[in-house]
């Protein structure tokens, strides 16, 4: 089991300050942008664990104190949003929001436009996955007004009419409500305190949107990270635009329950970003903190970058941050291919056309190129039926345009499913070929697209259902007639194209309407209806027993106890051999029991402060790990020749089920057929 220890390590052994770290994942690499007095600093990592400094990504003559950068890739360029002030100024209220651009993630970035002339900081730009609009969260001092009781810095949101322009219709989303958010007491000499809410980061899990923020004084010891929540779907089931979400702090606007705060090892914890692990599934929180043993020195930058796993747990978040002991490394994917080798790996088969790897320098990640022709197809040997995959693609259009993408289902040239970007028609289409006969089964229009720029194509397969995203915009869902495991490939037709950083993790995520796929994994002890959750309201228990699972499996059950007598039991192990680990959740508490050779041993037990919780179990190599809420247990992995899961519900509901399979080690900048998974 590979581990790392915070703070973030650099390849040269030097400890570097990284205040307000923002991490961007692009073409299989992670880029961290951090606050700096002389410019925005940038580092790069293949795995979130080991970093390499690339120096300054942005510095501007006559400016200084570059705060809290956020970088996104859009329209073929990198856009950096940040604040700075005139050089020589010691007044932080002269910080104003700016935007700069670069063709490369490491820069150099060039200033493009200023958004405001008054104090404005901490931008976070995201794309609404339904409308395609970009929105900006940011912080100012004027949202509450000087007449308000809780005066101070707050978080607002506004639509972007262009990548360098706001609509000018800001709306407050997180306002000060807690004493722990006070930056300075009696700031005006009239008894009024000054509050600070800043550093917004937006992300979602299933039907819940989360907005983390930092409160208190960033220069103090009690800086903390909290979060607000919002329901993504309206009462009628429609998706709510990001700008219209209704936010409330966890657990309420008037109860202090921080996500991350100081402990005996680390203080000043705050200003985070959230990024996916190399497996494309797990969330990791990236934040700064100071060594609690250091004497606080305002003249010296002591904030260093730290990374910790972030767990969605029902409609709330849980993390062990800030950690100072060894932690499991971020999980790797089932397949990662950066095409860095001189020859294609033997796991890939050229079915048609010609493909050749393109060696690149550190400034340009490697790729594989397919030459122009009638059609080209490169297929991986692994067969999968459920996965999340991504690849970066670009093309050289001919006079007739360009068609390029992936084949998420491939059995033969006469039996496959293709997802292709069509630059001439400005659409993306899904076509199914059966016995050589092609049928177009879904299509969606594309926004303005430059096919010569890298696009981030993401495809998820859930048995016969294919979901497609392009550059974080959800485009379509298509239903095929094929739910069996198959190979996956990269495809282009009539044009030259390049593919970079192909990543795939075998993963099944059943929630909401997707729970109807449960019969493909489980058999039930009796008939039951599934309607956005598997609900067992009475005392009579319902038992679900899975088919055989891969030896390296991670399962997650999100359950909710409905009745005082209710319970949910999740068992993983060799059920026929009578050796297993069982997690039992009842109202207000849980227990974990190991059963073997007719005897039982309780491994852990404790309280649960919410009726809804996630039960996570992972069997990998020599370790078996269980996590319920904020509590985790590790034990030596039993020898289970027939690994299966069993779920029993009474007076409870199963909201979601996840299954992830993988084995081996995470990516480290080159090809891996196998990779790792952690709970």
In short:
The protein has 679 residues and is mainly β. Helix content is 0%, strand content 54%.
Number of helices: 0
- What's the CATH architecture of the largest domain? 5 Propeller
- Overall structural domain count: 3
Mean pLDDT: 92
The CATH topology label of the largest domain is Tachylectin-2, Chain A
The CATH class of the largest domain turns out to be Mainly Beta
Helix content percent band: under 10%
| Uncertain residue ranges | 664-678
Strand portion: over 45%
**What overall form do the CA principal axes indicate?**
globular
Question: Taking Cα atoms only, what radius of gyration do you get, to the nearest Å?
Answer: 25 Å
Number of strand elements = 53
**Main pleated sheet:** 14 strands, antiparallel
Query: What structural class do the secondary elements suggest?
Result: mainly beta
CATH superfamily of the largest domain: Glycosyl hydrolase domain, family 43
Quote the distance from N terminus to C terminus. 12 Å
3D structure, described in words:
This protein has 679 residues and is mostly beta strands. It has three domains: 326 residues, 5 Propeller (Tachylectin-2, Chain A), CATH 2.115.10; 173 residues, Sandwich (Jelly Rolls), CATH 2.60.120; 141 residues, Jelly Rolls (Sandwich). The protein contains no helices and 53 strands. A hairpin with a 2-residue loop joins strand 37 and strand 38. The two termini are 12 Å apart. GO terms for molecular function: hydrolase activity, hydrolyzing O-glycosyl compounds.
């Amino acid at each position: 089991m590979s581990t790392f220890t915070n703070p973030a390590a650099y390849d040269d052994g030097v400890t570097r300050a990284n205040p307000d770290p923002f991490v961007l994942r692009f073409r299989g690499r992670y880029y961290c942008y951090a606050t700096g007095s002389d410019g925005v600093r940038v580092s790069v990592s293949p795995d979130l664990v080991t970093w390499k400094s690339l120096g300054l990504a942005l510095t501007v003559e006559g400016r200084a104190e570059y705060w809290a950068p956020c970088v996104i890739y859009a329209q073929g360029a990198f856009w950096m949003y940040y604040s700075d002030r005139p050089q020589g100024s010691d007044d932080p209220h002269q910080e104003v929001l700016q935007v700069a651009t670069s063709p490369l993630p490491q820069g150099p970035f060039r200033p493009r436009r200023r958004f405001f002339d008054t104090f404005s900081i901490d931008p976070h730009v995201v794309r609404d996955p339904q409308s395609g609009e970009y929105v900006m969260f940011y912080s100012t001092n004027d949202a509450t007004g000087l007449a308000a009781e809780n005066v101070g810095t707050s978080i607002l949101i506004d639509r972007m009419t262009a990548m360098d322009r706001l609509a000018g219709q800001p709306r407050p989303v997180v306002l000060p409500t807690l004493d722990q958010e006070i930056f300075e007491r009696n700031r005006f000499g009239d008894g009024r305190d000054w509050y600070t809410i800043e550093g917004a980061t937006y992300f979602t899990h299933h039907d819940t949107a989360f907005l983390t923020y930092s409160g208190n004084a960033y220069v103090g010891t009690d800086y903390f990270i909290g979060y607000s929540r919002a329901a993504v779907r309206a009462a009628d089931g429609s998706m709510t635009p990001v700008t219209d979400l209704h936010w409330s702090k966890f657990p309420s606007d008037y109860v202090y329950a921080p996500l991350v705060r100081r402990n005996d090892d680390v203080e000043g914890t705050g200003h985070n970003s959230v990024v996916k692990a190399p497996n494309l599934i797990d969330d990791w929180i990236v934040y700064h903190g100071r060594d609690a043993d250091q004497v606080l020195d305002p003249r010296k930058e002591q904030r260093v970058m730290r990374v910790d796993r972030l767990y969605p747990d029902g409609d709330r978040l849980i993390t062990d941050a800030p950690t100072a002991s060894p932690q499991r490394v971020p999980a790797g994917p089932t397949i990662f291919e950066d095409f860095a080798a001189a020859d294609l790996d033997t796991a890939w088969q050229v079915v048609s056309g010609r493909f050749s790897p393109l060696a690149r320098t550190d400034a340009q990640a490697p790729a594989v190129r397919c030459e122009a022709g009638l059609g080209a197809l490169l297929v991986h040997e692994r067969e999968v039926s459920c996965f999340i995959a991504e690849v970066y693609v670009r093309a050289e259009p001919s006079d007739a345009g360009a068609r390029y993408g992936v084949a998420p289902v491939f059995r033969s040239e006469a039996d496959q499913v293709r997802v292709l970007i069509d630059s001439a028609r400005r659409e993306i289409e899904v076509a199914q070929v059966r016995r050589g006969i092609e049928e177009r089964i879904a299509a969606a229009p594309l926004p303005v697209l430059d096919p010569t720029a890298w696009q981030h194509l993401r495809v998820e397969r859930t048995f016969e259902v294919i979901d497609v995203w392009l550059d974080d915009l959800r485009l379509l869902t298509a239903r095929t007639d094929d739910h069996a495991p198959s190979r996956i490939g990269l495809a282009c037709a009539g044009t030259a194209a390049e593919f970079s950083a192909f990543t795939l993790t075998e993963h099944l995520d059943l929630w909401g309407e997707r729970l109807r796929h449960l019969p493909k994994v489980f058999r039930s002890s009796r008939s039951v209806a599934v309607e956005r959750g598997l609900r067992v309201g009475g005392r009579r228990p319902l038992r679900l027993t899975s088919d055989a699972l891969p030896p390296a499996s991670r399962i997650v059950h999100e359950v909710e106890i409905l009745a005082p007598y209710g319970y949910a039991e999740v068992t993983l192990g060799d059920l026929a051999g009578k050796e297993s680990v069982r997690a039992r959740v009842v109202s207000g508490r849980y227990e974990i029991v190991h059963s073997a050779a007719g005897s039982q041993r309780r491994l852990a037990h404790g309280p649960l402060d919410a009726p809804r919780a996630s039960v996570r179990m992972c069997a990998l190599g020599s370790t078996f790990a269980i996590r319920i809420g904020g509590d985790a247990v590790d034990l030596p992995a039993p020898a289970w020749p027939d690994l299966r899961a069993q779920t029993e519900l009474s007076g409870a509901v199963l909201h979601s089920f996840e299954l992830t399979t993988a084995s081996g080690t995470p990516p480290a900048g080159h090809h891996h057929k196998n990779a790792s998974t952690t709970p």
